[in-house]
Amino acid sequence: MAQKSFFILYIFCLLFFVSTSQNPVQIIDSLKIQLNKATKDIDRAKIIADLTWYYSMVNTDSAYVYGKKSIYSAKKIGDSTLIAQALSDFAVVNYSKGDLKTALDYYKKSLLIREKQRDSIGIASLHYKMGTAYHKKTQLDSAMIYYLKALKFYEDTGNEVLANSAESNIGALHFNQKNYNEALRFFNKNIIFFRKTDQSKLLGNALVNKASIQLVMKDTLEAVKTLKESIKISEAINNVETLGASYNNLGEVFMAQNKIEQAKDALSKSIQYRSNSNMDADLTSSKLTLAGIHNTLGEYKKARLLLDEIRPFYKREGIKEKLSTLYLQYITVFASEKRPDSARYYSAKYAELQEEIVGEKALNITNELGAKYESEKKQNEILKQRAQLAEKDLEVRRKNTFIFGSLGFAMLLGLLGYLLYNQQKLKNRQLQKEGELKTALAQIETQNKLQEQRLRISRDLHDNIGAQLTFIISSIDNLKYGFTDISEKLGDKLTSISNFTSQTIYELRDTIWAMNKENITFEDLQARIANFIEQAKNASERTEFSFTIDETVNETHVFSSVEGMNIYRIIQEAVNNALKYASADEIEVNILKEEGEYFIEIADNGVGFDQASIEMGNGLNNMKKRAREIGGKLQIKSSNHGTRILLRVPK
């Protein structure tokens, strides 16, 4: 997890470190007024360049438009200094948008002009920015070369702030190369300097980077402490970029600790801050992580909304590692929606993309090794030419060439073997994932078949047994009215049978209701219980009924259909017993939640009964049996002032 943490790279090595009493929006408004008043082309070109710069801090789309205008205006005037600056500013805009290839192209164009002008400050600035771009592209060798060039200039000129910033990025490179102790040494040095010079923004950034090192070194408690310090410092100066990174990394920590809700809160804050920082790549990265959290919490609709939102960005920018993670999250979403075709589609896309990623990494490493090998060959040719002047020196150089060539070839074979081994591991993991997916799809299919069977049984109960019971009631009524000379005793017996049959129909409907549902919520129970109590009121007009659900109860809490039906039957049996035997004036049904359990209370003010002397009947035994089946506990307390039945159901 720790290596997924977000590192802050210090990109803007000149004007971004200069504080201002105005915020960028105020400066932009002022510059627009100046632009409307400006009449000279040179003045307008400078103002447009400034607008590009300040818009890059608040709105990358507007910055992109002004960046194009700035390049056009500078070329129209023919001022090489302005052209170089416009190209550099436009590169920064593309960096912020996540288009690193375009950013590097414009940095290189600007560098050619700066080198012709022998502008050492401008050259150092571009070396620094190119280092950050290569760093983000994970081309670590190139990044190190440009960082070291910039660092040498800043050390030679005594610019401690920018030298420390460059060292922070070099520390981040050591982290990427797994040189953790070396990376930590750089960051600790930066933190001491930034504290001493009161550089709050840079201090917050350095703390974020240090926390990432602490995480990978398994010092989670110190990492959380460091991130919280960064948040405190960054909030004081409203440094949204660092706040976004800090909360993002804090969310990663909470995910590793399985504190999913805390991770969700941290990622939400990260997204809030990154929405205001114009760092599109970082914002979409946080959204992708949050989508994964939604999937973990079973919030599949929320996860899919985020995935649909960020998918165009990753497809457009071609960030394959992130796109691969996105496809993996889609598999979970579509499996939850019982859409096996879509799940299989994204599983195939994921496997295809993983093969591309591994292949590209292998190709890049092979090309780099090939280039190094060719370089060594050229060097050896030069050595041979020089060696003609001294035969002994030639022998020594030939031996060295053979040794270096052998080592290079051995390294190449070793790396290729390592890559093939990793690729095989990846295929094995993919096969495992496919097996897990097939199992999940089979479970979904089994659940669907079970639900279809339950629906079929419930229809048969309703259409066959329900119709037969209704026919019995109708036949009894016709019998009573068709034979006027039926004795009173026989008439009462027929009425009793009719009432019993009617009650059986009601209970059959309750059973069908439960079978038609895969899950039952408190909201469903509330409606069913309210309907039952309304019937009870009609049966006993002298008894007052009340039914309340406490505010602490989550009405959307889900029970299985078996659990929900057992709870309903227990309440129904308790109310029926109170009506039949207790001679109660008041019957209450209350539902509340305490300490992770739901409490369901059925109380009356009737005559009660002596539990020691009265043998438990089928009704009370059935209630206790139903409670045990759902993992609950049933308590019965009775006195001559009434009876209280308490059902405790685990949350």
Automatic annotation (TrEMBL):
Q: Does the keyword Transmembrane helix apply?
A: yes
Kindly give the PROSITE patterns that the UniProt entry links to this protein.
HIS_KIN, TPR
Provide the transmembrane region boundaries: 402-421
Top-level taxon of the source organism: Bacteria
GO MF: phosphorelay sensor kinase activity; protein dimerization activity
User: What are the annotated GO cellular component locations?
Assistant: membrane
As given in the record, the signal peptide range reads: 1-23
Spans of the TPR repeats?
A: 84-117, 124-157, 244-277
Query: One short Pfam family name for this protein?
Result: HisKA_3
**Keywords assigned by UniProt, alphabetized:** Coiled coil, Kinase, Membrane, Signal, TPR repeat, Transferase, Transmembrane, Transmembrane helix, Two-component regulatory system
List the residue ranges forming a coiled coil, or say none.
Answer: 373-400
**SMART domains assigned:** HATPase_c, TPR
Q: Which residues form the Histidine kinase domain?
A: 460-651
Query: Which InterPro entries does this entry report, sorted A to Z?
Result: HATPase_C_sf, HATPase_dom, His_kinase_dom, Sensor_HK_TwoCompSys, Sig_transdc_His_kin_sub3_dim/P, TPR-like_helical_dom_sf, TPR_rpt
PANTHER family associated with the record: NITRATE/NITRITE SENSOR PROTEIN NARX-RELATED, SIGNAL TRANSDUCTION HISTIDINE-PROTEIN KINASE_PHOSPHATASE UHPB
The name under which this protein is listed is: Tetratricopeptide repeat protein
